Amino acid sequence: MKFILLVIFMILILISASVVIITIYKSNKSKKNTINKLNALNVELKTNKEELTVINEELAAQREELYDKNKQLNEIIKQLKDTQSKLLYSEKLASIGILARGAAHEINNPLNFITGGVHFIKNNLKNNSNEKLNTALMMIDEGVRRIEKIIKGLSTFTQNEESVLKKTDVNDIIENTLRFVNFKIHSDIIINKNFNTIPIMLYYPDKLHVAFLNIISNAIDAVSECKSKKEISITTNYISNNDNNFIEIIIYNTGEHINEKSINRIFDPFFTTKAPNKGSGLGLTIAYNLIQEHNGDIYVKNKDAGGVEFIITIPEKL
To answer: What global pTM score does this model have?
Structure first.
């Protein structure tokens, strides 16, 4: 009986051991399968990560390419705007030139009659001591002389189609320009001319006329809105810097400061701070381009003490 119980006990032990061994085996196999699955997932994740890295690099390259193309597009738009402004300027100036040359020619004819008549009267009244008559003749002479100056300046101003380099005094160009805007200068506007001696140099006189005209007209408009001091100062200097000699023209007005957002765009085509219908936004762009044609530079700054200053520099050797 004891033997039978011992056999049964041994059988139970063997069965229990088998169950434990089978359970451990299955557990290890399951664990091994899980590890294999995890390794496979890690490999897949690594592959996906590499693919994402490649995709991100491609996106970055596309973004950089898009940025470059956008930059090129902006440059093209800027060039188109510049070209458009130059075309408008050329057409406008050509029309003004034709009109002005015709007017100068027509004015010259009656002016010659007046000059001839005055000379005839003078020759026939040499011994006449009539003070009033002599004064009247002097007044006519002065009037004719001023008209001749205007016509001479007008002829220089309107030669854009046949622009050629000419030896000119820049101070004379500014003087002629001031004659053209004289009708805009009210009695309460003070013009200070601080002209220093400038050597005769080669310029495109008509182009400088237009550049100065636009800047000075802009200054007149600015000071016209002032409630107190209305003043424009024009200073010319010749600066010798070894072989890099240049002239400097400073045009200052007591108008209000240009706000910081606008001052960097002041020479952009069609940009204007004036009220609607008060400006096309081309005047300063044209001035900038014409100064550039002289290999010069122009910039604007607000003065700490008040007012705005335009500084133009033109090299002696174009």
So the answer is: 0.53
